[in-house]
Amino acid sequence: MATPNDLLGILENLDDAEFKKFKWFLQQAEVLDGFPAIPKSQLQKADRTDTVDEITDAHHKNAVEVTVKVLRLIQKNDLVQPQRICKAKFKHWREAK
């Protein structure tokens, strides 16, 4: 699983409006393609560190996949570059072995 620090580093690259959209999409089960939505009540006042906790609690080993999916939905493809997420995916792969 990606470390919370890996995910926090990605979320810190979002401005406030992008971060608000990011949290909104996390609440929309229909766009998460089979991943559970995070209830609005858990994200409404969440800052970036709280949001990382919510993502990792709700999605465990799929935290990186969900994060990438939402980043694409908010058109932040620059944050989906392999050098940004490869480290997190590699850590998950090594822990799964």
TrEMBL record:
Q: Which InterPro entries match?
A: DAPIN, DEATH-like_dom_sf
Q: Which SUPFAM superfamilies match?
A: DEATH domain
One Pfam family, please name it: PYRIN
- Give all residue intervals belonging to the Pyrin domain: 1-91
The protein depicted here goes by the name Pyrin domain-containing protein
| Top-level taxon of origin | Eukaryota
Q: Which species?
A: Acanthochromis polyacanthus
* Coiled-coil region(s): none
